[in-house]
Amino acid sequence: MSLLKRRAAYGALRASLAEGFAARLLGSGVNDARAFSAPAATYKPSDTVDVEIVRKKGIDLIHDPLFNKGTGFPVPERERLELRGLLPKKSLSMQAQADRFMEDYQLGKTYIDPKHVSDGGVTPDHVRRWKVLQELQDRNETLFYRLLLDNFVDMAPIVYTPTVGWACLNFHKLYRRPRGMYFDATDKGEMASMVWNWPANDVDAIVVTDGGRILGLGDLGLNGLGIPIGKLDLYVAAAGFNPGRILPVVLDVGTSNRVLKDDPLYLGLNQDRMSGPEYFEVMDELVKALMGRYPDAVLQFEDFNMEHATPLLDRYRHHHLCFNDDIQGTAATAVAGVYGALRVQGKSNKELAQQRIVLVGAGSAGMGVARMLALGMVKQGLTYEEATANFWILDADGLITVKREKQLSSTVEPFARKTQADVEGETLAATVKRVKPTVLIGLAGAGKLFTEEVLTTMGEHNERPIIMPMSNPTHRMECNAMEAQKATGGRTIFASGSPCNDVEYEGRTISSSQANNLYIFPGLALGAHLGATRVITDEMLMAAAEALGDCIPEEDLDKDIVYPRLKDIRYVSMIVAKRVMKMAYDMGHLHSFAAKKALEISDEELEAYVQEHMWEPVYKPLVNLPVGVQE
Ligand SMILES: NC(=O)C1=CN([C@@H]2O[C@H](COP(=O)(O)OP(=O)(O)OC[C@H]3O[C@@H](n4cnc5c(N)ncnc54)[C@H](O)[C@@H]3O)[C@@H](O)[C@H]2O)C=CC1
Ligand SMILES: CC(=O)C(=O)O
Ligand SMILES: [Mg+2]
Asked: Which domains does the chain have, with CATH numbers?
């Protein structure tokens, strides 16, 4: 094929991908018609493409999953990159490779013994799919992300919750190849040099955990690295971060998990989890090392335990481009979901101020959600004190009141109940009976706390109860969709942390939504990165929440769906990123000259700017011939 023909064909390939993208969005019939038709109007696929710089050749190239195309290397690359004889001669198109993979993925040829899937609420088939996908990611990331993006609804529960929970529990047994960076407390004094061992000179996003509280599975120590890996998979698929410019990190500070410590295969430090000033010193050193080498990267803190999550956020958020996903991403997600549920009830955002909210789980996620919902109420006209009076928060010791003997943390304290009627330590069932909440949220990670009694009471006092069991993974959720619908006669507006199927109830199909921070963190990070915002403020988070709420199509609200469809996740991330940048601009935090310029031209220009910066999972030419398609 001639060079010109190749250029045209590559342009056509990109255009058809863009068309597919736009068609999917248009097909979603979102209420904001202008926003949703924008990609078709503004997407400008170029008819040439930059050659990707790759220094490897031959077998080293085949073994590099970032550049490997497997049987997809076209002839000129095989010739110029010393690949001849190392691969079967026939070149397959990416589509043919994808079809072949999907056969394996769907047919299930790999047998998984059910007794190896004993925890985490996942099935043997989830695990099989996880293994097949993992193997693909280890050999060909472009194809992996193409498939993840094109099959997001099916594959997100595999690379993310619930299956990622199982992968973390078993991380030490599954470990085959390194992914991400491993630091531990004994590396003190060395971290700034260690970080230079990472091969990429540019990193746009880092997700770090210390494994302290992995989903609702507790302290998993080094095994927690599975979560930053899963989150960053979504950064790429959902928001178009470049997979060569992301970095998952674990800081191993020991673990309180005896089962892991006693397991000879466990790969982490065999010591108790650190705490106190020593802990913060190690963490400071890691953050300094990471930010020292990658000062422009967005740093996401993930799955820290209650003792450290908020103090770490408070320590860095004013000086670094960082956020805590469990506190802030979850909060923005919950606000969007409640706004969505109000719209399902035919109400406006203003009615947020009238809600009575019972929230179980006074940890990082729960208190982040409570605070942001309260800030939402302030936006609707209440004082912060009036807003906090609309909440009843429970933890493992029951309802939290000012009479609590244990000292309350600064995040919980404003929400402690003050009135005579509120009994310290009251049970959830009793609180729900007495308070008659309109919204019930679960973020305790303790399993079935929304009992039949609790759910039935919600149904008795509300025409359309809003019930959000947001804990993860599946078996740690406070209830499932069927339980909620059965107990309330199919009237619940339902959203859960891990995915739940729609419910068939008395001849009707009742929708279930997923209330998970995956709707926020990719777009939030993308907006912060592209806008070079240097910090992430409450206002930017609120803008993200409102953007997410605005992405729900009217026709989906009619079906009780309170979050956008996951198949539209790239579009949702683009809108969230745009709104985050606009808020950053208003507040003087938008430091990218190019983003500012686009924003000042028009909304459409800003959308196009975001979209053009999203990495696409297509094979880029590796030699100086545009070869996006096969001969
Ligand atoms: N859907 C989503 O997007 C997100 C969900 N989560 C989930 O939220 C859960 C909690 O996460 P964090 O707040 O970070 O944990 P955390 O450890 O900081 O807080 C847990 C809270 O739950 C309370 N709790 C524990 N057992 C309880 C019981 N039996 N009854 C009442 N309260 C109880 C604890 O006292 C504590 O206040 C986890 O399952 C996590 O997977 C977290 C972030 C995002
Ligand atoms: C979703 C999430 O971040 C969590 O469950 O911790
Ligand atoms: Mg988390």
From this structure: 3-53 (no CATH), 94-320 (3.40.50.10380), 346-515 (3.40.50.720), 521-612 (3.40.50.10380)
